[in-house]
Specification:
The chain is mainly beta and 127 residues long. 0% of the residues lie in helices and 36% in strands. It has a single domain (12-112), classed as Neuraminidase.
């Protein structure tokens, strides 16, 4: 949701009836588009940061605690694996080329999955 500042957004949750709106992103600047729920519905994956240097964050829906999972690379479009153990995302860390990467859910063990001259965007998991 836009909070009235150009290109700055906040993340809100609400119940299925459309009530009980609650902001869960507090103090993160430069929040971007794609959001992914963890399989247990406890966390959201978001990206945030300055233009050209976005990082992936795990946002605790209950406490609003944000944990940075990546460092550099201009990352976006993170998605949890069906078991919640891994996160796939796209990043520009390969010389400005958009490739797909994977990390463990705690942010460790970064691994590049693609190395195409064409950009790779928006990874999605299948069961």
């Amino acid at each position: 949701m836009s909070m009235g500042i150009p290109n700055e957004y906040e993340i809100f949750v609400m119940d299925v009836a459309g009530g009980n709106h609650r902001r869960v992103s507090l103090g993160l600047l430069g929040i971007g588009g794609s959001i992914s729920w963890s399989p247990d519905n406890k966390y959201l994956l978001i990206y945030a940061g300055p233009v050209g240097d976005k990082d992936i964050f795990r946002l605790d829906v209950e406490t609003s605690e944000a944990v940075q999972l990546t460092d550099g690379g201009n990352n976006a479009a993170a998605a949890y694996s069906p078991d919640g153990g891994y996160i796939a995302f796209n990043s520009m860390r390969n010389g400005g080329q958009a490739d797909l990467y994977i990390i463990k859910a705690d942010g460790s063990l970064l691994r590049r999955l693609t190395n195409d001259p064409e950009p790779d965007w928006g990874p999605r998991w299948e069961p």
